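Narrative of activities, Objective 1.

The group set out to show that a structural description can be obtained from nothing but a protein's sequence at a throughput compatible with the screening campaign. Below is one input-output pair from the validation batch, recorded exactly as produced.
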Amino acid sequence: MNRYPLEIFWSNEDEGFIAEVPDLPGCSAWGATEADAAREAQDAIAAWIEAAQAVGREVPAPREVLPLENYSGKFLVRVPRSLHARLARHAAAEGVSLNQYVAGVLARG
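Output recorded for this entry:
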């Protein structure tokens, strides 16, 4: 099994889950379920590596993905004052803290 991290998401256009391999440009797979997409991604990774090696292209090593315990859940973001004010007004209108509001906006992507 390959050790490349996957990003799996639902695609309305493809009506299924897409598993992308960020370390291998253009490498992705489709599946009806997240598990199917992850399984198919292993074949896509193997094919990507084989094709790269056939043309003498360098194959990047899988990046290390740290466990969640290594993340505090806090980070500092500097924004323009006007954006800070707009976000604070939206948070107040929703009746939540600025942190809760921004976390919700980030979660929705």
